[in-house]
Design brief:
Elements: H1 10-20, E1 74-75, H2 78-88, H3 92-103, E2 111-117, E3 123-125, E4 134-146, E5 149-160
Antiparallel strand pairs: 1-3, 2-4, 3-4, 4-5
Length: 163
């Protein structure tokens, strides 16, 4: 079936984040979701799914109690991240990327898309630009697939409205 024929609502995005969060990229091949005992709860590096380190605060992530990193742009909260991801999943850039993943559905094959415009009212914190929320204008996402299971390895705000 693949991932390009799926409709990504909040539930589907949450599952893609859950199966990715804190999981080593090499383990993506072993099924749609790993038990908590096989996850790396720190989720601090590029070798594991780590969307939740791009969210401000701590304790509201699916994996452990990850704290948003100060050296990265962050979503205001987990729901903001999920809502922004749901929106970008309908864009031409992401749909085309999902089709490419279906052509080569290997866990090592990734689609890394940056500067995807969002029109929703999503707020976050720009890296090294103060501790006040700003409206997000673009988002970056890194995705992988294994069969009909989508893995969102990373997602963060990469552009903010000026002013």
């Amino acid at each position: 079936m693949g991932v390009s024929n799926l409709t990504f609502d909040k539930s589907m995005v949450e599952r893609a984040l859950s199966r990715s969060g804190g999981t080593s990229l090499k383990d993506y091949a072993y099924g749609p979701e790993l038990p908590d005992s096989m996850r790396n709860a720190k989720a601090t590096g590029k070798k594991v799914g780590h969307v939740y380190i791009h969210v401000k605060g701590s304790g509201d992530s699916i994996v452990g109690k990850n704290t948003g990193r100060d050296d990265r742009s962050l979503f205001q909260d987990t729901q903001t991240a999920i809502n922004a991801i749901v929106e970008i999943m309908t864009t031409t850039q992401v749909k085309d990327a999902l089709k490419r993943l279906d052509q080569d559905p290997q866990p090592n094959q990734q689609e890394w898309i940056k500067n995807i415009p969002v029109s929703g009212h999503y707020y976050g914190y720009a890296r090294e630009q103060g501790d006040y929320p700003r409206k997000i204008s673009t988002v970056a996402i890194n995705m992988r697939s294994h069969g009909d299971a989508l893995f969102i390895s990373s997602c963060y705000p990469d552009g903010f409205q000026v002013g």
